[in-house]
UniProtKB/TrEMBL annotation, chains A, B:
<keyword id="KW-0663">Pyridoxal phosphate</keyword>
<comment type="subunit">
    <text>Homodimer.</text>
</comment>
<keyword id="KW-0808">Transferase</keyword>
<comment type="similarity">
    <text>Belongs to the class-II pyridoxal-phosphate-dependent aminotransferase family. Histidinol-phosphate aminotransferase subfamily.</text>
</comment>
<dbReference type="InterPro" id="IPR050106">
    <property type="entry name" value="HistidinolP_aminotransfase"/>
</dbReference>
<dbReference type="GO" id="GO:0000105">
    <property type="term" value="P:L-histidine biosynthetic process"/>
</dbReference>
<dbReference type="GO" id="GO:0004400">
    <property type="term" value="F:histidinol-phosphate transaminase activity"/>
</dbReference>
<keyword id="KW-0032">Aminotransferase</keyword>
<feature type="modified residue" description="N6-(pyridoxal phosphate)lysine">
    <location>
        <position position="210"/>
    </location>
</feature>
<keyword id="KW-0028">Amino-acid biosynthesis</keyword>
<comment type="pathway">
    <text>Amino-acid biosynthesis; L-histidine biosynthesis; L-histidine from 5-phospho-alpha-D-ribose 1-diphosphate: step 7/9.</text>
</comment>
<feature type="domain" description="Aminotransferase class I/classII large">
    <location>
        <begin position="25"/>
        <end position="347"/>
    </location>
</feature>
<dbReference type="InterPro" id="IPR004839">
    <property type="entry name" value="Aminotransferase_I/II_large"/>
</dbReference>
<dbReference type="InterPro" id="IPR015421">
    <property type="entry name" value="PyrdxlP-dep_Trfase_major"/>
</dbReference>
<dbReference type="InterPro" id="IPR001917">
    <property type="entry name" value="Aminotrans_II_pyridoxalP_BS"/>
</dbReference>
<dbReference type="GO" id="GO:0030170">
    <property type="term" value="F:pyridoxal phosphate binding"/>
</dbReference>
<dbReference type="InterPro" id="IPR005861">
    <property type="entry name" value="HisP_aminotrans"/>
</dbReference>
Length: 354, 354
């Protein structure tokens, strides 16, 4: 608190990311990072990048990366926007489209940063409850609104919607922007990118932090109609001309191009998620059906907080949210098979799971 | 223009950065980049960075870099804020401190991004004219305000203020935030960082893009009182948890640590600025006294636009602004001695300068 702050800053409740421990010897299953390193082609590009060029500004349009993404997703160049992580892309999205007279509709349980952006930009919200089995029901979103955003698969539940549900909403909701945050889509859900040419109010946001193993490089992107992308560019160019550094542009482009490595690593994670899901179920957990690189699970006899503490005492970090409706759940990132075995073994050391 | 945009987006006039040509064979003196590559220690750190770590999120607090900066500037850790280029630091600064009932005071001619941020965040402004010899007169800023920002040295004029003038303003103006943007300070001006412990409303912003040869890596920072830094952290953590990627944190830390290389390269640029200034003066130019890595100069008989076109036809890029009060000037970045010789030779090919 300070007399020097703008008034709106006083009431901000910033987002709190998952812990990034500085010591080693920890099995880190708390921030949905990929257990596999970036593609060898990314490493090669970064190693051989002519570093004397860093004295120059990076390309303010990130042309190389936008071209790579446009080709990959079979869209035009002017349908692609890139930013410093999908969090920055989301922030600009809220600024560009959601400051409207009517409230933004969003799930009552979803990526908690959405509410923070709304605070920051003073956007009215209306939270739509999940179903009793923790699903988004898009039929509930067919009502007057100043925009709609949801994650698919949703976070932290991991549950995906079928594309037909999203298209049904888009047929109904044509006058405001619908944002589908697909941070986890590559682990088993259907992307709405295939719908952007039919629905000019649809914006799809993805990240290279999860399925492309580049969380430490901070690159996200959006795909939509040229008019939505132009709105995002206006905000970006009024905020920071050069959001991506040269190495981020080069690394991200190489990561998108290495489709084979991407498929190998995502398939391995999906297989290990399946194994983990079976193990958790055998231990009596209720694991929601995941289309992501994490599992959201609760146990009928042991609280989420207790389970988190139990794992932490064995040097295993998982994420626990204190929000009442989900406080009994753990969000467990899918690591390597060995890490998942260690996590399951550690759970079995709990007296009620032995 | 789109019906999907938030209303305030319609009237934005985004900042237009200097051209980043994609072809080679150009002498690029238009965006104030450093002609020398980053420190060899930066290159070494980047080359040997363990790239498999990029699968993990970067440190959201950029601890290593903040510690390095705190040590370098003899301030505490909680007096340092870092961002994705000083442009992002500036954007958060406008959001955090300048949305006030009274208007922000800023020079009528200065870094043109300031007005763009004010548009973006709907901040009222009052522009204070420069003196007839293109100087900032801080006595003119002693009036009711919602904040004060100026660049020192100023851009695009290159003219620096003495620290005593800044301190006199701070003694008078204690209730609102005073931001000194020191993007170019290392080329010959006095930094106000030495005043931050006395004036809790003073925020000093610097960048690694100029004197540290890291424009392509996107790192800027602010130094001020813990309460100002806390305000910036609130905005940053409501916008993007991880603004600096791992390589940016590592590169920037190494750049700050290599004081010897920094001094060598800045001294060389200052010497070549002196040479260029003499040459321009001999050609009849009016060159403002520069404390930066550029010279702002006009010629009494040839328009700025004509001179820019003349140089461009010889593959030399300089910056020209169409704003009426400065449209006769060129902003010429100080490159290598060889580049400055080429620029002077090219000017001499103009019929009126031959």
């Amino acid at each position: 608190m300070s007399k020097f702050w703008s008034e709106a800053i006083l009431s901000l409740q910033p987002y709190v990311p998952g812990e990034q421990p500085k010591q080693g010897n920890i099995i880190k299953l708390n921030t949905n990072e990929n257990p596999y390193p970036p593609s060898p082609k990314v490493v090669e590009v970064l190693t051989h990048f002519p570093k004397e060029r860093l004295r120059l500004y990076s390309d303010p349009d990130s042309t190389q990366l936008k071209q790579t993404l446009a080709q990959h997703f079979h869209v035009d160049y002017d349908q692609v926007f890139v930013g410093n992580g999908s969090d920055e892309v989301l922030a600009h999205t809220f600024m560009a489209f959601f400051r409207q007279p009517l409230p933004l509709l969003l799930p009552s349980t979803t990526y908690s940063f959405y509410d923070v952006y709304c605070d920051l930009y003073q956007i009215k919200t209306q939270h739509v409850p999940l179903t009793t089995d923790y699903r988004i029901n898009l039929a509930d979103y067919a009502q007057p609104n100043g925009g709609i955003i949801f994650a698919n698969p949703n976070a932290p539940t991991g549950v995906a919607l079928p594309l037909t549900d999203i298209e049904a909403l888009l047929q109904e909701n044509t006058e405001t922007v619908v944002v589908v945050d697909e941070a986890y889509v590559d682990f088993g859900a259907e992307s709405a990118v295939t719908l952007v040419n039919q629905y000019p109010n649809l914006l799809v946001i993805q990240t290279l932090s999860k399925s492309r193993s580049l969380a430490g490089m901070r690159v996200g992107f959006a795909i939509g109609s040229p008019e939505l992308i132009a709105g995002l560019e206006r905000v970006k160019n009024s905020f920071n001309s050069y959001p991506l550094d040269m190495l981020a542009i080069a690394a991200a482009s190489a990561a998108i191009e290495d489709q084979r490595y991407f498929e190998q690593t995502t398939q391995q994670i999906i297989a290990d998620r399946q194994w983990t899901d079976e193990q958790l179920t055998a231990l009596g957990f209720n694991a929601l059906p995941s289309s992501t690189n994490f599992i959201f699970a609760s146990h009928p006899e042991i609280s989420g907080a207790e389970l988190m503490t139990h794992l932490r005492s064995r040097n295993i970090l998982v994420r626990h949210f204190t929000k009442p409706s989900i406080e009994n759940f753990l969000r467990i990132t899918i690591g390597t098979r060995q890490e998942m075995e260690a996590m399951i073994s550690a759970l079995k050391e709990h007296p009620k799971l032995a």
